[in-house]
Amino acid sequence: MRGTLVVMPSALPEGESVPRDGSLPATATRAVGARGFGVYVHVPFCASRCGYCDFNTYTAAELGGGASRESYADTVLAELALASRVLGDSPPPRVDTVFVGGGTPTLLAADDLARILGGIDRTWGLAPDAEVTTEANPESVSPESLKALRAAGYTRISLGMQSAAPGVLAVLDRKHSAGRATAAALEARDAGFDHVNLDLIYGTPGESAEDFTASLDQVVAAGVDHVSAYALIVEDGTRLAARMRRGELPFPSDDVAADRYLAAEAALGAAGFSWYEVSNWARTPAARCRHNLLYWTGADWWGLGPGAHSHVGGVRWWNVKHPTAYAQRLAAGASPGLAREVLQPDETHMEDVMLRLRLASGLPLEVLDDAGRAGAERALADGLLSGPEYAAGRAVLTLRGRLLADAVVRDLLP
């Protein structure tokens, strides 16, 4: 599965040590959840490793005997108990969103995923309208397991489709058949899920324009209400990167990726989807992923699991990566946190610009300094920002601006 903002690929960053009990500075806990509060749960297990993946996931062979799926829910619940102690007298007013990602969360038994969700509810309380998402690989769910997850309180599912073309799936080392993702999406709807997302990856070597069109057609036909589409990123250390270095496959083309993005916007727009973040489209505002919106707007969240990142009151920390080390720390009564950083105002500003500019709601111009405002003027003149929204005091990317979002961000930051 494609990871989220709280599970970092490759090496973890450096930072100051996390106290053994996981305690936070008093300044961080003064208004927990004032801008929303989410819980992320990382499930680090996969049946096999996809060729493009460098996320913090492990197959059974890679894990050895140090950690198991069977005991994993209990370990996560142990971290949740620690989190409850850390926040103590400053708990969030409610949990607005839960997102279980991976890895392949649905390799855990549905009962275990239900126990984890129940633990979160008992600890902090789920909001009456809480969004509860799990990621899943298409081959890891069945009509029966989907019904069990829905009965447990999961309201949203995100399925890793990636492509409808068998040849593209083979290059990516995906194990499901070309039609399985859309079939699983229909099963999720039948099971009663409120919202269903399909993930696509575009720009894979060997993918033709016709292949991507067929993928988009299948997504629309599946009747889902949310689509995420990402350009293929080739990470060092993956099998895909090694194949490209050996000359077996060409490296991805930026021009092809731009063409694919434009095709996605055209097809999804014609089918009634609207973009709300550069890589995400929803049929209605209610279908937008509220959990990711928490990340993009600077809210608080607690990340449970190995390698998971958390953010509370301007303090960000990350757990040890390996499931065995994670379990050992918790068994010893210690925080699994490896390191943390207290975000400074300039860092908060930088992240605010980077993330909010990617949203269709855009960035208030008032948060920019003089240099950033001058950069916004240049982006406007270049057709990268929308004129009407700019006149109303917001920096909102045009379609061309979305293709060059990173460059626009650089222009708005000192």
UniProtKB/TrEMBL annotation:
Listed GO biological process terms: porphyrin-containing compound biosynthetic process
Recorded GO MF terms:
4 iron, 4 sulfur cluster binding; coproporphyrinogen oxidase activity; metal ion binding
Q: Which residues form the Radical SAM core domain?
A: 31-271
- Keyword check for DNA-binding: no
Where are the membrane-spanning stretches? none
Q: Record's superkingdom?
A: Bacteria
* Compartments, record wording: Cytoplasm
Origin species: Micromonospora rhizosphaerae
What is known about what this protein does? Probably acts as a heme chaperone, transferring heme to an unknown acceptor. Binds one molecule of heme per monomer, possibly covalently. Binds 1 [4Fe-4S] cluster. The cluster is coordinated with 3 cysteines and an exchangeable S-adenosyl-L-methionine.
Against CDD domains, the record matches this protein to: Radical_SAM
Q: Which UniProt keywords apply?
A: 4Fe-4S, Chaperone, Cytoplasm, Heme, Iron, Iron-sulfur, Metal-binding, S-adenosyl-L-methionine
Q: Which Gene3D superfamilies match?
A: Aldolase class I (3.20.20.70)
Assign the protein's first listed, main location to one coarse class.
Answer: cytoplasm
Pfam families with a match to the protein in the record = Radical_SAM (PF04055)
- In Swiss-Prot or TrEMBL terms, this protein is called Heme chaperone HemW
Q: Name one GO cellular component term.
A: cytoplasm
List the SMART domains. Elp3
